[in-house]
Structure formats: C-alpha cells, structure tokens
C-alpha cells in the first residue's frame, strides 16, 4: 500500500462524499419544497432561540429610515424603497437622486431578505409607524421587494374582509420593478447573490459568522420558485381598488431593424405570410422568455393590473449605472413620470 498517496485519496473521498450529499439534498429539496421551507424556518427559529443576541445584532441596519430628503423640500408624497433578494441597497443609488430632485422624500426599508417573504412583510408592518402618517406613502419594490409590498398590502394593510391589522400611513400606490409575480427559477442560485451582498455591503455592515444567518436561511428562495405555495396564495388574494399599481420590467434583447427586415425578406422570398408571422412570434417568445436575465416578461404580468412597461436593460441595469459615465438607467424616467401622475390625481 502506498501510504504517501493516502491523504490524497482521503481528500478525494471527502470531496466526493460532499458532492454526493449536496446532490442528494438538492434532489430532495426540488421534490419536497414545502418540507424544505418548513425545515429552513425551523432552523431559523432555533437559531433565534439559541443565540438571540447574535441573531438580532443592531449593526445590520435593518429597519425603515429616511435615505434622502427632497432637494427643495418635499412637494410630493413620501416614497418607500423595498429591495429584493440579497440586495445590499446599492441598486437604489441612481433612483434616489432622481426622486429627491423631483421633490420626493425617499425612505428605505432594509430587512432580513433571505427569510420567508411573509415574514419580511411582517417586518415591514412592525416598522410602518416610522413613516410619516399624514399622507399616503408610495411603495417601490425591486424584484422580490415587489412581492414583499404585495404581501404587506393585501394581507396586512388592506386585507379582504376584516379591518386592517395596523394603522399609520395609507398606501398611495405600488411600483413593481422587475418583480417575479409568478416566480423565477434563478432563485435557486441565491448562494451567489448572498456572496455578492456581503462583499458589496462589507463597509456598512459588521460581518460575522451570523451575518448571513440573520438574513434568513433561504426560505425566500423556496417562495420564489414558480408555482410555490406562497405565490399561489399571494396571487389568489384580491388587490384593493384604492391602491394603483405600475409595473415595469426589462428585456435583454431588443429587436434590431436589420433582424426584422431579414425575417420579412425570408418570408417574402418563400411567399408565405404565415411564415412571416411564425418567425416574428418565435423571436418574441425568445425575448419574452429571456426577459431581463432573471425574470421573464410573463412573470411580470398580473391579470388585474396594467400591462408592464418594458425597457431594454438587465435586471439591475434598468435601475443602476454600471459606470459613472453611463446614461441614466432606462426605468427611472417612466417611474418618476408615473409617480407625478399619481400625486396630481385626486
């Protein structure tokens, strides 16, 4: 027996065993999403019970706070920004400046966003009193943040039947930006989003072993799966008529004129109008399915809401510049224009 190679063989066996266990967990989780969510919630609750101080460290900055006041004094309703899954908050940098310039006081919610989306809505309810109550507050949610807002409005602030479960400011409208109303399969890759969140937010957030666990242990990933129990319940709940909505999303691919001309020329050469319609439908299906790279156009839509406005960008670049010399992100002007229309309406 070659004893010199024994450590290497043991290492390879350890790696193989780890991969096999990860594969087995992934397969079980895919087949049992309800049980997976319950198990993750149990782990989260146990950590809260065992390590209450470490799991509620104030250095994370969770809560509702004024991020930027209007430049010339508030002339519009206050706005509350609600970020998405594993987002450290920088997604709002460009929009905050534009909103303040337009006369809006900009508030921001920071919350443990890996926990169940229903718990994130409960978290917002506990901090709702921090907002000014004398006028309606407009909610703006990016990605999963739009689902947190919908859950908050339909289950807590304006539930069907019984009286609201909390008082305070009314909701003056909801803007959903790239919100996966019917889920997103990309939520399965949340581990990479988690790493990005902690790297980008390292200067503002005290990192410890418990920093990621305080966010939750991945319950939100289960809620974001297409067809999840959470999405079924949320989409079955009626929306209050008094709260207007605005949906906006992005597509990675716009249709260049050269492609349109090429499709038309190919169909004309064959002499088939049906072929032309088929080619254009194929391209539209491709771009709609790809969406912004994380959320498809179909997942944006809601049956009882206006159709979404679509801009040419990615899930993040529709709101945030990649470089300081880039043009203003394309979703910002339509959002501000819609907010101004709402504030001018009786």
TrEMBL record:
<dbReference type="InterPro" id="IPR029058">
    <property type="entry name" value="AB_hydrolase_fold"/>
</dbReference>
<dbReference type="Pfam" id="PF12697">
    <property type="entry name" value="Abhydrolase_6"/>
</dbReference>
<protein>
    <submittedName>
        <fullName>Alpha/beta fold hydrolase</fullName>
    </submittedName>
</protein>
<dbReference type="InterPro" id="IPR000073">
    <property type="entry name" value="AB_hydrolase_1"/>
</dbReference>
<keyword id="KW-0378">Hydrolase</keyword>
<feature type="domain" description="AB hydrolase-1">
    <location>
        <begin position="79"/>
        <end position="254"/>
    </location>
</feature>
<dbReference type="GO" id="GO:0016787">
    <property type="term" value="F:hydrolase activity"/>
</dbReference>
